[in-house]
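Example (one chain per record):
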Amino acid sequence: MLWNICWTLLARPFPRSMFMPWKRFLLRLFGAKISDTVNVYASATIFMPWNLEMKEYACIGPEVDCYNAAPIVIGNNAVVSQRTYLCTASHDISLASHPQIEKPIIIGDRAWVAAEAFIGPGVTVGEGAVVGARAAVFKDVEPWTVVGGNPARVIKTRTIKGE
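Predicted structure:
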């Protein structure tokens, strides 16, 4: 609860670029492991910052919902675009008590999760992969592939010209 109050009062009111060091400080104060080059938009919701790791030049865009009951790792130069939902928890529907189950999410280096995508518990988005806008991902995404749809399916292999 203290985390939510601090983020709401001390981070959300401030513009993106000017106060980024302040936002990184707040995240680190609550246990996030983040590099000095990350960008986290103030409108993002981080459920448990102590379960967040972001590497060099990683970005969490506007209004991203990071429900990280289990760890979330976002790799170097990876982008999680606006209104994406990263969900590390669900419930075991095979048991009458429906206990919560938690599994980490890993977004690989140079991966891009496009706007309004859903990434489910235990998913790894491989290096250089692209998750299309509004895709729902429930299984791992292989490196350098492009997926889209609900449920997400492979669309093509990603190639970068000039590399």
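Caption: The longest strand covers residues 153-157.
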